[in-house]
Structures are given as structure tokens and as C-alpha cells.
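Dear support,

I submitted the protein below through the web form. The confirmation email said the job was done, but the results page showed an empty box. After a refresh the structure appeared. I'm attaching both so you can tell me whether what I see now is the final result or a partial one.
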Amino acid sequence: MRRTSSKPWLHRFSRPLLGAIATTGAINTAYLTYLRFTSTSCPTETCAVLASRYATVFGQPLSLFGLLAYLGMGVLALTPLLINPDTQKSLRKKLEDQTWLALFAGAMAMLMFSLYLMNVMFSEFVFGGAKLGAGGICPFCLFSAILATAMFVIVLIGHEWDERGPLFSIGAIVTTLTLVGSLAIYAPSNAVTVQAGQIADTQGKVVFTYDSTSGAAETQLAKHLQSTGAVMYGSYRCSHCCEQKARFGAEAVAAMPYTECSAGGKDAKPEVCEAELAKASEQTKQPGGFPTWKVNGKYFAGTKSLQDLATASEYKGPQDFKNNTATCTAK
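What the results page shows now:
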């Protein structure tokens, strides 16, 4: 009869627990990867982070790398359990000894990267420049950070470490490499600029281009609309919105009042747009869509001629608008 193991229960079940957490994390990140590759919209209204520049690394979805990380942790945790402890005891012990340090290094790296991303999410999207409040919290990202933290805790206390000294050395090295690598990866993204005549997402990926230029009439109308509180609600993914901007011309677009409504667009304010489009729908008795103009308290749906906008806003300046029609090219 085999004696009951004297090991603490957490030590006995740490590997199955790590395998379960890794599997859960893999499902979470696989779902996000599917959304990204299929261009499916995020199922919640709090996914601005997933459409930002931080969601892509080396041209691929960040979630894909997360999926690979979780799969790797799962393999490290569960592989020794496949070895029969009665007939191949030495091999199993060897695998267990060799994988624990790898599990520690992997869990530490995932924890540090998750903390970096959580800092970005709260400092930039929740409280920072985007000022989305609770709408800037990505539930999938937060869940992944919780899973990474749980894995690290289980690795740390779910194994009887003979010496803690090497752990501190490995932890310091992994932490430094992870944070330095994270800053290096995202540094180029912070310098992304969008040229006039281009419409791009926050990652700098150009979606539409147009080559129309602005005259004095277009520029002054744009400034007049801005000064009188008019707003155009649109989306960087909307071709009609691009056509509306093209009617102003590349130079005047910088002065025109515009609110981005789609997560993934620069300075997006989806919650503001949702409220305004609801009011527009109530006033016009039509479904809200892009673009929608709000001029002198009235809503106007669809692409408008500059003359119509001038009349609605009571603009009295030069009206020799040269871009009565303008086209955009999808990239």
C-alpha cells in the first residue's frame, strides 16, 4: 500500500493548477486573436486598449504572443505529469527539477509584462490622455493580468525551493529584460504621426488617403465651425467620413471640429458619440450613423456639402469652395 504523501496539498496540486490557469489564459488570448484576425468588433464597450497601438507587436496581435506564452507555461507545467512515477521515477524527477526554474522565469516575465500593460491601460486610457474612465478598462486584459499573477504566486509557493538566492537573481534579470524590452518595443509607436491627407488608426496604419487641398474658404469655414461649437462625429474606418474631410481639404481638416467615435482611432470618445448619436436619432427619426454633424444644436446625418454646412452654421465668410466633390482611396 502506497503511503499518503506528506507534501502540502498546494505542492501536490501546483502543476495541475498551473496547467488549468494556462489553459484558461490560452482560451482568453485565443479569443482575442480570433477577434483581431477576423476584424470582429470587441464584444464589450470597454476595449479601446485592444484597438490601440499597444495591441500590436511586430505587426502581429499582442494576444497571439500571449497565447504562445500561456501554451508554453502549460507545456512546462504538465509535461512531467505525463511520465509514470513508478516506472520512470528518475526521468520524472529530472523533468520536474528542470522545469520549475523555467516556470519561475516564465511566470515572472508574464507578470512584469502584465504590470507594464496595466500601467499603460490605467495611466493612458482610464485616467490619462484618452480620459475614458471605466470605459478604458479592458476586461480581457485585466483577466489575463490576474491569471499571470496567480501563476506567479503558485510557482513561488507551490514548490519547495531548496535555495531562494537563485530566484532573486533570475527574477532581477527577467524583470530587467522584460521592462527594457517592453519600452524598446513600444518606443517607435509613441512617435507615430499621421500626415495630412491620410486617415490612420492609433498604430499609424493608414486606412484612407485623399489628395484634395484647401483654399481660404475651406479653412475659414472649418475655423468658423470650430468656434461656434459645431462637431462632426465620425469613424476613421468610415469612407463617407473620409469623403467629408476630403471636401475640406488636407490643410483645413486640422482646424475642423471632429470627434472620433471608433475605438482604435486617435483620441476616440465612443461614449460621447453614443450619447450624441442617440440624440441625433431621436431628432432626425433616423438611425444614427457616420458622419453625423451637430450644428447650432441641430443634427444632420450623412456627408454634407460645404455650402450646406455654411448655411446651417450661418457662416458669412468667402464661399468659393473648390471641393464640391472629393474622393478617398482605401489602403
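Response: this is the final, complete result; the empty box was a page-load delay. Residues 189-194 have pLDDT under 50 and may be disordered.
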